[in-house]
Design a protein that fits this description.
Layout (H helix, E strand, L loop, with lengths): L5 H11 L1 H17 L4 H4 L7 H24 L1 H7 L12 H22 L1 H19 L7 H18 L9 H4 L1 H14 L8 H23 L4 H24 L3 H13 L1 H12 L2 H8 L1 H11 L4
Helix pairs in contact: 2-4, 2-8, 2-14, 2-15, 2-16, 4-6, 4-7, 6-7, 7-8, 8-10, 10-11, 10-13, 11-12, 11-14, 12-13, 12-14, 14-15
Length: about 300
């Protein structure tokens, strides 16, 4: 059997966006924390690791498969705008990429069904939302950001439904990632050729709404001081590159704003855990940040 060359394997990894996958793991970890699943630890009970690991594997497959298909559907356009990517450069064929994406999505759905039927159905929803975005959604100025945000909102719910009976406010919490990713997607439209300032100002407004929502959630639980530590870090991570892009909306600056926004998802997820009052979970999630940053230095985020 012919072995894959190191360059081919690297091409597969580039298609999967490893740094972004870490952020999806953080989403699920935050969702599990919001569900109260880890609260059993503070009560002295034994927490089963199998469903936690299964959902981590699930989100890796679902996110990885989704971004692989993004490059599959964009192969012709990337041949003009981003010829260095794995498919247009010839490193990975469209058939190989489609097979990889399919296997990742199937693995993600299978792992979710191991946990319970509700997480299984959510995984199907994530897969469909990702494929719709890859093929059609990203071409629509309004529906595209909402479509991409839906993928992240469902990813948070994937973790929240680990117990199959998340709190009634779970769906409201899942709207926050929808808003946040909608903002990043709006910014990203000017990543290649540069853009206008208006979408960047809108993104800043949406960022503020996200921070305010998490603060409101923390205030209801009396955890503002601890949560504020994470939110200040989060605000710096997203607003610093965004401010530079607003001053000069060139493609390179917009790209940095998008990259900062994507990586900062980990800090936002840690902020959710802090708002719940789970110090171990918040610290555990934030420790994913250096891993994601390291991978971002090796593989493209966008």
């Amino acid at each position: 059997m012919k072995q894959k060359s190191p360059s081919k394997i690297k091409g597969y990894l580039r298609l999967m966006r490893p740094a972004n996958i870490i952020t999806s793991v953080a989403d699920v970890a935050a969702g599990i924390t919001l569900s109260g699943f880890f609260q059993q630890l503070s009560e002295g009970n034994r927490v089963p690791l199998q469903p936690v690991l299964a959902l981590m594997i699930s989100t890796i497959g679902l996110y990885g498969g989704g971004v692989v298909f993004n490059d599959v559907f964009d192969a012709r356009l990337d041949g003009v705008e981003r010829p260095e990517r794995p498919i247009p450069s010839g490193l990975v064929s469209i058939g190989e990429a489609a097979l990889l994406g399919s296997l990742l999505l199937l693995a993600g759905m299978a792992a979710a069904w191991i946990v319970n039927p509700l997480t299984g159905f959510i995984s199907i929803g994530i897969s469909l939302a990702a494929l719709v975005y890859d093929k059609w959604g990203k071409h629509h100025s309004l529906l595209g950001p909402l479509n991409m945000g839906l993928c992240r909102g469902l990813n948070l719910l994937l973790g929240m439904e680990i117990t199959a009976h998340a709190p009634g406010t779970g769906w409201l919490m899942a709207l926050i990632p929808v808003i946040y990713i909608g903002a990043i997607t709006t910014i990203s439209r000017g990543e290649v050729h540069g853009g206008k300032k208006e979408p960047l100002y809108l993104a800043a407004l949406l960022y503020g709404l996200v921070i305010g929502s998490i603060l409101y959630f923390a205030a209801a639980r009396g955890t503002i001081p601890f949560t504020l530590l994470f939110l200040l870090f989060f605000a710096w991570m997203i607003f610093q590159p965004l401010a530079k892009a607003i001053r000069e909306p060139a493609g390179r600056n917009i790209g940095k704003a998008v990259r900062g926004g994507v990586i900062a998802l980990i800090i936002m997820d840690a902020s959710w855990a802090a708002a719940v009052g789970s110090v171990p979970a918040a610290v555990g999630i934030i420790l994913l940040l250096p891993i994601s940053l390291w991978l971002a230095g090796l593989f493209a985020v966008t």
